[in-house]
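Q: I'm writing up a methods section and want to include an example of the input and output format. Could you take the sequence below and give the corresponding predicted structure tokens, formatted cleanly so I can copy it straight into the document?
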Amino acid sequence: MIICNPNSFVLKKTPQIIQCDSEDSWNNYVKTHCTFTPLSLNPSLGNIFKKTFNWKHKYLLLESEGGTITFFPFVLLKNSLVSLPHFSYGCLICDNNHEKYCKELVEQIKPIFNDYSVKKYEFRSFYKLSENVYTDKVISYININKHKTVFSKFSSNLRRKIRKSVKNGLIIKKGQLELLDDFYKVLCENSHRLGSPVLPIAFFRNLLTDYKYGDSLIWVVYLNKKPIGSSFLLSYFGFFENTWFASIKKHNHLYTSYLLNWSMIKYACDNNGNIFSFGRSTKKSGVHKYKKQWGTIDKQLYWNYSNQKKFNVRKQNWMKEIWKLIPLPIANFIGPYFAKRIY
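A: Here is the clean output for your methods example:
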């Protein structure tokens, strides 16, 4: 394996694996080769994973014999290699003809398995890299420029709902650590309603303090000074994503989610954004249909596994129903223990 030199970062047209320990060199290469720059490529995430969960991380560049470049960030979890936990995607192939290379990718990285005693892998990607693949999810995004242009392209009904949210007396705030507790309160309540354990608040705090090369911001919507909706926005080189999002169901008729999403879109437009992602959802679900109102484009997600999963916790609805029965304070206390492992 080659360690990249930040002063001389040039790939040759031969098969090789390059470990990049220079964040500046990595970022420069991303800007040079990628028109689509999802959050998983941000090298500051690795240290946040380490600080929060004590996970080891690596950022590798792979070059095939034909010159195809793959950005390959990953985390080591016991005997597994995951690219990338708690995010919808990981590795990115920078080649319009990537289909030909997908079959070669796993073979090329097999030496990595030996280096780190890895027996299993999970590659979250935009490409099918394994016969054992989960394809129920997509991310939905829109291309953006000036916010007035983006707003004018929305349907009249969507524009009405956005305006109505303001007339309903909702107040929205943008910030960072000062809004963390209110953001997390809404996230915990909504996650419990859906039957899902919530990530530890330390993870979000570390994102706010240690995330670099882009924005890390919170939005919170208030009704009568009480938080009823919240979202967490991350960006990287013009790619903005609504990464975590929650609202209190009994107030949804006030169009809380519309105010949150439009506020983030407007911010992204005004801060040199070119893509706004609404994050992932299950195809044809209610959430997916909601995103379609915004004129979104779907990008298929492929979660590739080294072995066929005998037990997929995401498909165990009975577990969700049990979680809903746990009192909220207890669920909030034990939830982070489980959420760390359900990535």
